[in-house]
Amino acid sequence: MRLCFVLFVACLGIALAKPQEAKYTTKYDNVDLDEIIKSDRLMKNYVNCLLEKGNCTPDGAELKKHLPDALHTDCSKCSETQKNGSKKIMRHLIDNKPDWWKQLEDKYDKEGTYKKKYREELSKEGIQLQ
Ligand SMILES: *[C@@H]1O[C@H](CO)[C@@H](O)[C@H](O)[C@H]1NC(C)=O
Predict the structure, then answer these.
(1) Which N-terminal stretch is annotated as signal sequence (predicted)?
(2) Which of 26, 55, 60, 75 has the smallest set of CB atoms within 10 Å of its CB?
(3) Into how many domains does the chain fold?
(4) Cα 20 off chain centre by
């Protein structure tokens, strides 16, 4: 009888804890991406943060923390703003900063698996992964 109760409580705990982990924080969704894209200096800061070559702003640190998971899970925990934002940044980097993009690919997609996985989907969005 007691075991039953313990199991029930454990299961309930897991069930309740899950939804909170289902999405990344939207705390930084109001960051002005156009401002960052316009400024090479700001953009470089984020890139260096992701490459572990420089300091991270709080939102940069958050991005770095979740990027591998987001790539792995098809950005399924991303808010729509985050998805849109990722595409915008990717487009900018691929078109205008191919060397920074390459370095990010080398770090986060060494085997080229994600490139393969996302190539088709992103080409529909006008993002051409080489
Ligand atoms: C994201 O992009 C889609 C397609 O361009 C658009 O319909 C949607 O309103 C955007 N959402 C946000 C939150 O920016």
Answers:
(1) 1-17
(2) 55
(3) 1
(4) 17
- Cα 63 to ligand 1 centroid, rounded to whole Å: 20
Residue 121 CA to residue 108 CA, distance in Å, equals 19
DSSP 23: S
Shortest-distance Cα residue to atom 5 of ligand 1: 84
**81 Cα: distance to centroid of ligand 1 (angstroms):** 7
CATH code of residue 28 = 1.10.2080.10
pTM of the predicted structure, to 2 decimals? 0.81
55 CA → ligand 1 middle, Å: 30
